Amino acid sequence: MNKKLHAIYISSFFIIGIASTLLLAINGYQYYSTPLLTRFFNPQDILLKPSGFIGQGLGVLGSLMMIAGVAVYMTRKRIRFFFNFGYLKNWLELHIFLCTLGPIFILFHTAFKFGGIVAVSFWSMTAVVLSGIVGRFLYVQIPHTIQGQMIGINELNAQNENLSYQLKNVYKIPENIFSEIEEISSLKRYKNVKLKTGFIFIIKDFFGTKSVIYRLKHELALAGVPRPQRNRIAKTTKTKLIVSRRIGLLKTMQNFFKYWHVIHLPFAILMFVIMFIHIAVTVAFGYRWIF
Amino acid sequence: MKIKIKTIKNILYAFIILLSYSSKIHAQISPGNLTFAHENLEGLSNCMKCHVMGKQLENSRCLSCHAEIKTMIDGNIGYHSTSYVKNTNCWDCHSEHHGRSFRIINFYPDKFDHNKAGFKLDGKHSQIKCEECHQTNFITNSLFKKRNGTYLGLSTNCVSCHKDVHQNTLGNNCASCHNTVMFKPAALFNHETAKFKLSGAHTKVECVKCHMKETLNGKSFQKFVGLQFRNCTPCHQDVHKGQFDENCVRCHNVESFKIMNKNTFDHSKTRFPLEGAHQRVSCIDCHGENLLSKLKFAKCTDCHKDAHFGEFTVNNVVTDCKECHDIFSFKTTLYTIREHNKAKLPLTGAHLAVSCQSCHYKTNLKQWHFRNIGIKCIDCHENVHGTELTEKFMPDNRCESCHVTDDWKKIHFDHDLTNFKLSGKHSSVPCRDCHEEKNESGKISFRFASLNLNCIICHNDVHFGQFNSNKIGSKPICENCHGYDNWKPIKFDHEKSNFQLKGAHEKVSCSSCHKKVTENVNVFIQYKLKDFKCASCHA
Question: Which of A112, B140, B194, B331 sits 20 to 30 Å CA-CA off B288?
């Protein structure tokens, strides 16, 4: 998938996701904002209640999206036969899309009424989604090849040195600024980062990097470096800082990722189990939507 | 680290399994709490009391508990049996699993369209409070009677809420007579639908006049059914006290007791059978407003006005009309000429031919008069002669001294009684030739007293004054020569004139000497010659 096609791929996810959410929210706002005790008497109840045509449809569609999202990604990731079926990164993006929009549909299916056994499923789903967001963040912190393979520490160090070479010899930035960048991207900063405080450190470092780049641009401007050159230097410096951080936190992030799996998967299983119970009970009682 | 992760995984899976078996979770299969009314149906074991596998819900499940509603639906009674509800599911209105406090009966009395209950609120019903009807003691269905505050179970039958003042004598369909605006009067009642249809004066009387109030079972009661109406006497008093049969309508009309039923009333059964013109007049003309008033009918004047103003009242006794009139018309009379001839003025001659009114109807008064109208001619006839006839010839204004009743023109008068005795030709000429005078306007009058005796008053003077006397007022000189039998001068003697005829004069014709002359346009024979000279005649 080339870059342009990927951009369309991702954009379509965003557009579909946001548009669906907005459409459902705007259409049902009046109904969903009605107190539970009087919601039955709302004219939209017949359509938007969990067993209503739209409500139940959203449940069916959301469930199918989540099942498909998990099944497709797990199949591609776990079964050797499918290892060469596209980039894992793109399948992950599809997984994230389906397993984000699916829960949103489920949210509207519940009509924001969280009770009964299915609520356990709902909250499990919420946990899975939230942990998914965290997982996505952690995934980014651990450098991967486009095929999804983790990149080793030596390869990262080589990338880091290459970036330093570019700054010093290609862009020829002033010595004092180069020294400062080297100082900031020094791996010594990440030595004392523990598992407990790692997450907060990463967030702080994320904003710290932005501050450094801003300051760098300012100093380059004072030194009389032209704007296009300044931007290229800033971009290279930012990449170097990120690579340095990933090198410094690689082990910590890998540990985080292991723990994350422990949370993400069981909640997903819990969600699916109760969801299937819920579907079984619903179908047994005759609520079959269009089927 | 591997051990740690595995441990965490195991703990989580154990938690999930435990959660699956938790009774709390089982209870939470339900999508939400039931209302307080169905609180006892909470729990997994009770689902199937309402739900049906594969069919969601069935009304029969609801109605198996709510038998009172089923009774109403089956009986086609009340709100739940109306078209608004009948084809809907129970849960379309009465949803569940929305929490304990959910209004499963979302009923707001003030907003409820009562038409949907199969009982339209109108009239007084629209003005009263719900509770005035929806009371437990008005509910007849025992299943509803037990339920506090229910709006169900009332019958649409009026007597379920209202007291039956008719004490079940008129059935229970109050609305066939009464509307909801007011109980009295029974606006919808149409007496035409009753066995006794109102007509005539019956439509104007108050109901209570016939439907009397009485006491039944110790309560005030107005009787509407069971009234006897085969004839009139159950309601009306028999004023004839049984003199006639009970079929009042044979004589009376329902419009009014006083208006007799002409078609069926037989007046011949009375002492005064109607004959002649009496058959054509309305009852009221004789009987007045009160047909029951006792009328005198021995004499015509008991009813009829004396058109003759007492002229026939003798010694305060009115001569009855039938003496002269019959019952067919007042204008015809039984008073014949023979009767008239017994009166003071017997009818003779032309009087026999004239109508009564010519003499007896006074046009100026517009009244008939029969008595004391006078028997003299002058009482009826005008004296056309005025003063021309003196008392001598018309004593006491009596025309009959000259005229007769046969013909006015037929005169019997002795002219010899006058100063001008008729002789010769005078006795054969009509009176008019001498006495009639026509004035300039053509009006004819007769001259008697004022008629001069001189001949030339009647005759022309053909001699143009040759023989006039010189004295004024002297007798006509015509008589000196002429007689009455003809015009020839039989009395003339030429010897007595101033020129005696002698000799040849005796032999010549008169005209030889008395020639025609023209003087002042008048042509006449000159008898009086101016002189007797010979040359005047002879050449």
Answer: B331
For chain B, say whether A286 makes contact (Cβ under 8 Å): yes
- Which single residue is written with the structure tokens 């008939």? B368
* Among the partner residues A39, A115, A117, nearest to B25 by beta-carbon distance: A117
Cβ burial B453-481 (10 Å sphere, 16+ → b, else e): eeeeeeeeeebbeeeeeeeeeeebbbeeb
Please report residues of A whose CB lies closer than 8 A to that of B5: 258-259, 262
Quick check: A119 and B28 CB within 8 A? yes
Say which DSSP state B361 is in.
Answer: E
Q: What is the pLDDT of residues B459-506, one digit of tens each?
A: 888 888 888 766 655 555 788 889 888 888 888 888 888 888 888 898
Q: Does B3 touch chain A (CB under 8 A)?
A: no
- The answer to whether A72 and A82 have CB atoms below 8 angstroms apart is no
Return the residue of B nearest to A36 by Cα. Answer: B98
């056994």: which residue's tokens? A117
What is the pLDDT confidence band of residue B27, given thresholds at 50, 70 and 90? very low
Q: How many CA atoms lie within 13 A of B348 on its CB side?
A: 14
Q: Is the ipTM of this complex over 0.95?
A: no
Query: Rounded to a whole number, what is the distance in angstroms from the first to the last CA of chain B?
Result: 219
Beta carbons of B29 and A117 less than 8 Å apart: yes
Query: Which residues, 6 or more positions from A81, have their beta carbon under 8 angstroms from its beta carbon?
Result: none
Gap from B126 CA to chain A (nearest CA, Å):
27
Report the distance separating Cα B348 and Cα B351, nearest Å: 5
Is A266 within 8 Å of chain B by CB?
yes
Triad B522, B523, B527: Cα angle to 5°? 110
Least confident span in A246-250, B91-95, B101-105, B150-154: A246-250
Query: What average pLDDT does this structure show over A9-32?
Result: 94
In angstroms, the CA B476 to CA B458 distance is 11
Check residue B539 and give its pLDDT.
74
| Contact criterion met (CB < 8 Å) for A40 and B55 | no
Q: Does the distance separating the beta carbons of A287 and B16 come in below 8 Å? A: no
Tokens of B282: 């309305």
At which residue do the structure tokens 């439907």 appear?
B211
Partner residue opposite A36 with nearest CB, options B47, B52, B99: B99
Please tell me the distance from the alpha carbon of residue A89 to that of residue A148, in angstroms, as a whole number.
Answer: 6
What is the enclosing helix (H) or strand (E) of B524? strand B522-525
Domain spans, chain B: 25-126, 379-451, 460-537
A-chain residues within 8 Å CB-CB of B101? 37
Cβ proximity of B458 and B434 under 8 Å:
yes
- Report yes or no: A68 and A272 within 8 Å, Cβ to Cβ: no
Q: Which of A40, A263, A276, A288 to mutate to test the interface with B (most CBs of B within 10 A)?
A: A40
Q: In terms of CA atoms, which chain A residue is nearest residue B23?
A: A117
3-state secondary structure of B403: strand
- The owner of tokens 């909250």 is A123
Residue B55 in contact with partner chain A when CB distance is under 8 A: yes
Q: Per-residue pLDDT for B331 more than 70?
A: yes
Q: Does B26 touch chain A (CB under 8 A)?
A: yes
Residue B1 pLDDT level (bands cut at 50, 70, 90): very low
d(C-alpha B217, C-alpha B240), whole Å? 36
CA distance, residue A75 to nearest chain B CA (Å): 22
Residues A119 and B431: their CA atoms lie apart, in Å, by 156
CA distance B198 to B151: 43
Rg (CA), chain A: 24
Q: Write out pLDDT tens, residues B246-301.
A: 778 878 888 887 777 767 777 887 888 888 998 888 877 888 777 667 788 888 88
